[in-house]
Amino acid sequence: MTGKERAAFRARANRLEPVFQVGKGGVSGAVIRQTADALRARELIKVKALLETIPETPKEMAEKLAAATGAEVIQVIGGCMIFYKENPELRAAEKEKEKRKKEAAKLQKLKLRVADRRDARKPRYSANTKKSTKEFRGSLKK
Q1: pTM for the whole thing?
Q2: What is the pairing mode between strands 80-84 and 20-22?
Q3: What is the 3-state secondary structure (H, E, C) of the chain?
Q4: Is pLDDT at 126 greater than 60 in this prediction?
Q5: CATH number, residue 65
Q6: Residue 92 counted as domain residue
Q7: Is 77 in the same domain as 104?
């Protein structure tokens, strides 16, 4: 992973809330399963370590979790650990959602164009006489 990609993930993770906390139990099977499930659902997660109770340093804990889940450690600051693992299924779902959004926007534009054409066919009325523009102009010529 390049430095620019890592920086982009750090920026995205800045607004994330921690998914869960790791305490005195350290890296256990349950924590690994939770981390794997969260990564499958979100790709980018933040995990908080309770510094007063954990048996090892957050950096060591992050390395163990990353090795067990196949994720990459993006950043460890204090007791906050950020992990990333790409999920192709999630990417495909996002692309499909984006495709539907674009199709809906095209359909909306088409509907607006049709509505504009309908409005163009309607006679326009003068503000003073409530006559159509053609009728109003015709009355001026007489």
Answers
A1: 0.65
A2: unpaired
A3: CCHHHHHHHHHHHCCCCCCEEECCCCCCHHHHHHHHHHHHHHCEEEEEECCCCCCCCHHHHHHHHHHHHCCEEEEEECCEEEEECCCHHHHHHHHHHHHHHHHHHHHHHHHHHHHHHHHHHCCCECCCCCCEHHHHHHHHHC
A4: no
A5: 3.30.110.60
A6: no
A7: no
